[in-house]
């Protein structure tokens, strides 16, 4: 691991954010093409395709912001002293809040488009059948990448909360305080 244990989560998340951005651009193009086709040919559009288009646009906007927040943490870690833990940053909740909103949007979009357009039925319709198949597949891929990013973010957050942070459990069920001493034991069972 080139950057240490905490920075390896950051590096992996940065790579996954870059992949997610690329997939969102492709999904934007596919969903725009589908909306253009249905509006010109049938004078309507599928609302779920419009929702996926919105999710991809919001992802395209949000990913650079999330990457900037992660890079700010890495830069702070490079110039900070030994006493400061750069991975405990105030941007983590903001990154997660945006990520979970997008995660929910991609989940809803992927589930509904899979239900409305089963890929077995759309194989025989030529180019637009393949477009729908690709759209269904890429919405699930985007959802999966956001899930992995969320898991890595929580793993990163958990790895930064080591002994001395005031919130970890010590040996024997005792809580440790910030100086490493033990507080009163935690009572388990009934009295």
TrEMBL record:
Record field: transmembrane: 14-32, 52-77, 97-117, 129-155
Biased composition (Gly residues): 163-173
Residue numbers spanned by region Disordered: 161-191
Domain of life of the source: Eukaryota
UniProt KW keywords: Membrane, Transmembrane, Transmembrane helix
Name of the molecule in the record: MARVEL domain-containing protein
Species whose genome carries this gene: Exidia glandulosa HHB12029
